Amino acid sequence: MHLSNLHITRLCIVIAILVLGFANSENVAQACSLYKAQIQQYLSPGSTIQCGLEGEVRWSEYAAPQPAATVTVGSEDDVSRIVTFASRYNLKFLVQSGGNGWADTFDLGANGIVIDVSKLTAIQFNNEKTEVTIQAGVLIADLVKAAWEADARVATGTCNCVSVLGAALGGGVGRTQGLYGQGADQLLSVNYVNGDGHKATVTPESDPDLWWALTGAGANFGIVVSNSLLDFCSSDSFYLCAAHVSQLNTVERNSVSPENALVESLLTEDLKTSVVFASYPIPQANNNAWTGVLTFDPSQIEAVIEAINNLTLEPEMEIDFYFTGGQVLALPFYVGDEEDGRQKFKSILDIGPLTDQTEVIPYNTWNAAGDAFCIDGGRKPAYATNLKTMDPVAWRSIWNDYSSFIAAHPEANLTTILAECYSTSKSLELGSLGRSSYPWRDIKCYGIAIPWYTDSSLDEEGNKLGQAARSHWTPSSGTPTFSA
Fold first, then answer.
1. Which helix (H) or strand (E) holds 424?
2. Model pLDDT, residue 346
3. What is the CA radius of gyration of the chain?
4. CB atoms within 10 A of CB 461
5. Is 63 exposed, middle or buried (0-12, 13-18, 19+ CB in 10 A)?
6. Nearest one of 200, 189, 198, 202 to 247, comparing CA atoms
7. Which H helix or E strand runs over 332?
8. What is the C-alpha separation between 316 and 404, in angstroms, rounded?
9. How many of the other CB atoms lie within 10 Å of CB of 203?
10. What span, in angstroms and rounded, lies between the C-alpha atoms of 175 and 316?
11. Can you name the residues that pair with 379 across neighbouring β-strands?
12. Of 218, 348, 431, 464, which sits 20 to 30 A from 401 (CA to CA)?
């Protein structure tokens, strides 16, 4: 049997990947060298391939992915080419933008690839400021800054270091969701590309099932390389580009012969689509909110939790409650002026905080209070629970556990336990259309326990703290089954 050079190359790659299937530092380095030799030539000049996570610092080092190589793409086309390569040789891969994912299931094996899209950072508003086109590497801080400068507002999450699309595809909660709905609600149409390079426009009408999956569970169904968000009140189109992972190993190209399929796809696949995110034209002078930190004595925990639990959060309202730095803090938020804000949160203020740092601040600083949580590095085995109700007894127990943990482990003084509470009315209204897979629209508060330390010997104790917080929250969460 005659083997062409391409046949021989592909056979060598397959054999090499099989041989290198057991993870150790030498095999990982060899796999990385193989990828550099086989992939780099097909990527754009701005792309790079590094071994492992060399030079990369994620938000949490706990259970972080350990790839053979990290490919930082220089263009959207690069994403499709890498996925084609990974699909051809049955390699695991993970896409990262902000690198903030805290799951402990990032097992890429010995030969896995991280596809880093952090260089894809283009942002463009239309003339009317009713839509903004962004790429997958855009962080919340980038988009907020651009929107502020464009006399616009975009509904984002509350942490500046998080990827805009990473949050939105999973549902996307944020301070203005009471006004505009969740991130997933902004999506109106999707141009998606599967792992074979097939492209199609998906809308709620053209493919209701896939649309339902993408809007709320999108990270499980594709790779988003860029997006544009439209004003949902005035437009019926919205663009998103994704590689449909569920079809990676099932679709065969028909336009080229099998022996040339890999090279052909690497050279010709072209991603020129975009996803649109909702933008709302608002002059800077009117783009303000009343917010700030309130400090409470630990003896007031029950009173504050009870007040939050009884508080009806109107569309302009949101509030955070957290234990951090050994303190008990609340952060009320109101889109409007100070007088109205104080009236809306009167039940919280009447408890008598020790300090009150609230003030009216501009849109481009709304997320500043959360910047301390954006510090990269350290070990953060986080645990989350959805809360329809806030139970004072549960929070007292969590405070006791938290206080004991940071007292026993001073290096873990950044450990934070918090709840973010949102208005649900708009989310429920848009969810009633049945077009999104995001299931937790009636959840008022999202509890998160973040043990935070650097020494891996504290992993067991850190996990115990997170698990204990979840066990305190769950019985009184108001949900029929555990959800997070």
1. none
2. 98
3. 24
4. 14
5. middle
6. 198
7. strand 327-334
8. 37
9. 17
10. 8
11. 453
12. 348
CB 159 within 8 A of CB 215: no
Nearest by Cα to 145 from 466, 383, 423, 366: 366
User: Is the distance from CB of 287 to CB of 148 less than 8 angstroms?
Assistant: yes
Q: What DSSP element (H or E) covers 288?
A: strand 288-291
Mean pLDDT across 439-462: 97
DSSP letter assigned to residue 267: H
Residue 293, CA distances (Å) to 348, 353, 359, 422, 445 in order: 12, 10, 9, 17, 18
Residue whose pair of structure tokens reads 């009471």 in the numeric block: 178
CA 79/CA 77 separation, integer angstroms: 5
Q: pLDDT of 338-375, one tens digit each?
A: 999 999 999 999 999 999 999 999 999 999 999 999 99
Q: pLDDT tens, 223-234?
A: 555 554 433 222
Is 27 buried (19+), middle (13-18) or exposed (0-12) by CB count in 10 A? Answer: middle
Largest CA distance in the chain: 85
Q: Which helix (H) or strand (E) holds 211?
A: helix 208-217
Question: What does the alpha-carbon distance between residue 65 and residue 82 come to, in Å, rounded to a whole number?
Answer: 18
Q: Residues 140, 143, 146, 148: is their CA dihedral positive or negative? A: negative
Cα angle 466, 177, 354; round to 5: 60
Backbone phi, psi, residue 125, to 5°: -90, 150
For residues 329 and 417, is the Cβ–Cβ distance under 8 A? no
Cα atoms found within 13 Å of the Cα of residue 228, Cβ hemisphere only: 20
Helices and strands (H, E) in the chain, number of each type:
14, 22
Q: What does the pLDDT read at residue 290?
A: 98
CB neighbours of residue 465 within 10 Å: 25
Tell me the C-alpha distance between 27 and 13, whole Å: 14
Question: How far apart are the C-alpha atoms of 292 and 50, rounded to whole Å?
Answer: 42
**Residue spans of beta strands (DSSP E) within 97-138:** 113-116, 123-125, 131-135
User: Higher-confidence residue: 228 or 115?
Assistant: 115
Beta strands in 39-126 (DSSP E): 48-51, 69-72, 93-96, 113-116, 123-125
Task: Tell me the pLDDT of the chain averaged across its residues.
Answer: 83
Backbone angle region of 286, left / alpha / beta, with phi > 0 → left and psi within -120 to 50 → alpha: alpha
Question: Residue 77 and residue 271: Cα distance in Å, rounded?
Answer: 5
pLDDT of residue 484: 62
3-state secondary structure of 439: coil
